Amino acid sequence: MKTFHSVIRQKIGQYLRQLRDEQKLSLDQVAKLTDINRNKLNRIEHGHKVGRSDDGYLHHITQFANVLGGDIQSLGITEIDHINFKVFNTKDRTKTEYLFNSIEHKIELEHQMGINLHSMEQLDKLDFNRNSGYGIMYFYLRGLFQYHKGNYERAENELMKALNINKHYPDFQYLNMTAVCHHTISQIMYYKGDIESALEEIEKALLGYEYESKAEDAPPLQRTSTYWAILINKASYLEELKRYYECDEVINRLITHIDLMIDKYKTGVYELKAKLEYRRKHYESAVESSLLGISYALCSSHFRKYLSICNVLGNILMEVNDLDLAESSYKAVIELSSALDEQYISNTVHAYVSLGKLMFKQGEFGKAMEYYQSGTNICMEKKYSGGKYIELLVAIGDLMYRMKESQKAIQYFEEVNYIIKHKNRLKLEYVEVYFKLSMCYIGIDANKEQEYMRIYQKLKDPFHY
After folding, report:
1. Burial letters 383-402, b for 16+ CB under 10 A, else e
2. Distance between the two ends of the chain, CA-based, in angstroms?
3. Where does 114-243 have alpha helices with state H?
4. What secondary structure letter does DSSP report for 5?
5. Largest CA distance in the chain
6. Whether the Cβ atoms of residue 284 and residue 268 lie closer than 8 Å to each other
7. What are the distances in angstroms from CA 459 to CA 101, 163, 440, 462?
8. pLDDT in the model for residue 1
9. DSSP 3-state assignment of 69?
10. Of the candidates 106, 362, 416, 459, which lies 20 to 30 Å from 89 by C-alpha distance?
11. Ordered per-residue pLDDT tens for the chain, 465 residues
């Protein structure tokens, strides 16, 4: 492939500058039309090369010319004819992508505000080439819609269709659909309570994003904020799996780049930072990070994170024995979450569990049980069996054991054991349950006592035989 000589680049730059002057457009205005930053456009006009290859340079100048109604080919530069380059019809792409993005925004608004903007009807009526790479966006949006409706199986099927199409259209890599599809699937896995699978999907999302970010000869990458969302979720999953060393590495990376993020994502970073400082017993800075996270959550109307961080703040306050404020924080979560949709249920259950533990700590076992029962009722009503439900069962079992009702404690711990066995839960995460079961069976069933102690010792020490 020939390299564009500086004289040729000067000729191209003068031509594009002339087109822009004729239409009385500023560089900033052209930057908005092309999604090419102003500095690159300026360098092109002054005859400098941009992009990592000749194909990349040609793509940029073609985009520049397309929005101005010009044609680089009209300059008669033979180097252009010898380059095997697929020219993007920028105007058509920009219009089609705008329509897809508009529908995506409507899907998000429908979810957040509980209104019907007829997003699916508009998606099905959308005029685009069904045999093109835009099928990726079409099925992604169908999957996103079903995900927000809580139809996780249907959502996953639609997202897998998008990923299969994506393999056949490498020129659509710049849309970062591999990343967003795997990211959404990871959230589905999380809501199903399968955190290990959620983490696996996050890793695929990161690989997809990094691979697609290296794509050349395409319009500038979209969804750059998706990268931060993926990393935030990765840290959250690692934290829930108690893989704290890996989690803290990701958190520190996020904190370093927090100024590059929108407010919505800053909420997640400050929540993670508060948890990290809480684990290190830096309670004052943990409270400070929680309050910052709450502030950003309110500014960005990110209510799920607001609820989550209020729970974290309550945990910190309980640890430092500021019990009245801790109780207020948990009750604020319950009050607000009751008015929101059921995707907020894990925060609600967490608040009831924490209030129960708070009462337990004060020796008010009756009140503790009332809060636990309220949490149980919600789980039964909403058919929720995620991680917070397991935490609730363990908390009730602890309370029963403390009240010397070992038989009742066994019922709750055995239910946790059942979930661990039949719902692909990570046994190591709940290893203490087997110790508690062993303790509960003392004087009741010696065989069970020994069986669960063996399981506990094997999980606690994998080299134990």
Report:
1. ebbbbbbbbbbbbbbbbbbe
2. 65
3. 119-125, 135-148, 152-166, 177-191, 195-212, 224-240
4. P
5. 94
6. no
7. 48, 37, 19, 6
8. 39
9. coil
10. 106
11. 345 567 778 888 888 888 888 777 888 888 877 778 888 888 888 888 787 666 677 777 877 776 676 666 556 554 544 443 334 444 455 677 888 888 888 898 887 777 788 899 999 888 877 667 888 899 999 999 999 888 999 999 999 999 988 888 777 777 778 889 999 999 999 888 788 899 999 999 998 887 766 554 444 445 677 888 899 999 999 998 888 999 999 999 999 999 888 888 899 999 999 999 999 999 999 999 999 999 998 888 788 888 889 999 999 999 999 999 999 999 988 888 776 655 578 888 999 999 999 999 888 999 999 999 999 998 888 888 778 888 999 999 999 999 999 999 999 999 999 888 876 556 666 788 999 999 999 999 999 999 999 988 888 775 554
Asked whether 182 and 204 are in contact (CB, 8 A), the reply is: yes
In what helix (H) or strand (E) does residue 382 lie, and over which residues does it extend? helix 365-382
Task: Say what the pLDDT of residue 193 is.
Answer: 75
Which structure tokens are listed for 425? 């839960």
Which ranges in 74-134 belong to alpha helices (H)? 78-81, 90-113, 119-125
Nearest Cα residue to 400 out of 389, 391, 411, 390: 411
SS3 content of the chain, % helix, strand, coil (to 5): 75, 0, 25
Distances (CA, A) of 230 to 183, 203, 371: 7, 9, 34
Q: What DSSP letter does each residue of 383-446 carry, written as one string?
A: T--SHHHHHHHHHHHHHHHHTT-HHHHHHHHHHHHHHHHHTT--GGGGHHHHHHHHHHTTTT-H
Angle between helices 135-148 and 177-191 (to 10 degrees): 20
- pTM, full prediction: 0.65
432 C-beta neighbours (distance < 10 Å), count: 14
Rounded CA separation 319/332 (Å):
18
Give the Cα separation of 276 and 154 in Å (integer): 36
CA pair distance 34, 39, nearest whole angstrom: 13
Work out whether the CA dihedral 231, 236, 238, 244 comes out positive or negative: positive
Under a CB-based contact definition with an 8 Å cutoff, are residues 311 and 331 in contact? no
Q: Which amino acid is at 174?
A: Y
Listed residue (354, 305, 303, 299) closest to 331, CA to CA: 354
Q: Which two tokens stand for residue 38?
A: 């102003």
Are 226 and 209 spatial neighbours (Cβ–Cβ below 8 Å)? yes
| Calpha distance 153→163 (Å, rounded) | 15
Q: Residue 81 contacts by C-beta under 8 Å, 6 or more apart in sequence?
A: 73
Half-sphere exposure of 348 (CA within 13 A, CB side): 21
Q: What pLDDT score does 24 carry? A: 79
Q: Is the CB of residue 133 less than 8 Å from the CB of residue 172? A: yes
Question: What is the distance, to the nearest Å, from the Cα of residue 445 to the centroid of all Cα atoms in its chain?
Answer: 45
